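To whoever is on call:

I kicked off a structure prediction for a single chain this morning and the downstream step that reads the tokens threw a length-mismatch warning. I double-checked the sequence; it's 251 residues and nothing unusual in it as far as I can see. Pasting both halves so you can look.
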Amino acid sequence: MEPGKALKEVEKVIVSSPAKERSDDVAFLKKYIGTNYNIIGLAVPYQRYLYKKGYSFSALSPEEQIKIWDSIWKQSNQHEVLTQAIFFWEKNINTIAPKKAWDSIKTWTPKIDNWAHSDGLSGLYSSLLEIIPDTILPQLKKWNSSKSPWERRQSVVSLMHYHSKRKEVLPYSTLIALVENLLSDEDYFVQKGVGWALREIGNHYPKETFTFLKKNYAKISGVAFSAAAEKLSEKQKEELKELRKAARKKK
């Protein structure tokens, strides 16, 4: 199928979704997600239902669908349509050759303008990082100093995404170096990513990460700290909060 026809088909399915499946406050949802793309406010479970229901080209092999979904991602300006492309890779990330998957989705980051798509791609990148780290890690290091805040966010959230899903994890020193580079980043969503990364790294390297938090308590933003401390014990949280409170008083 021609990619242009596939795009029209997916867009038609999305925009013709019944009103009962749409958000009552699309303006709020668009602001919450932080996207400038068109959005009709479909709940994620319903979006997954539509993907599972399939399209006329869904019977093609995953390899045959790569170019179709790549074109859909790069041409569409509809938030839910872009999400369908991410769902394709979530389903097939472990069935397509890692290098082939990476060659396609590494080019998707420039299209990101919101945390939902950012996190979706981070999950994919993290899966590939576990398999072909020598290929993925250099790109994450490059993104770590990018002018694009979304690429900087990808560079840390993609390191583990969710610790519970990882069988292989990079050395602590490798992970924390990328996070430390962004402690003073001024972008809100990058700081959210820093906090996310610290939380997940802490799940695997608890002692080392807590030591890092104690050493850098004054440097970590409030946005990052709330996420980073999420899995700490109450005692650890209180210790860090007292340190941060004392540091604020000195200013």
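Update from on-call: the warning came from a stale cache, not from the record. Cleared it. Sanity check on the structure: Residues 115-131 form the longest helix (17 residues).
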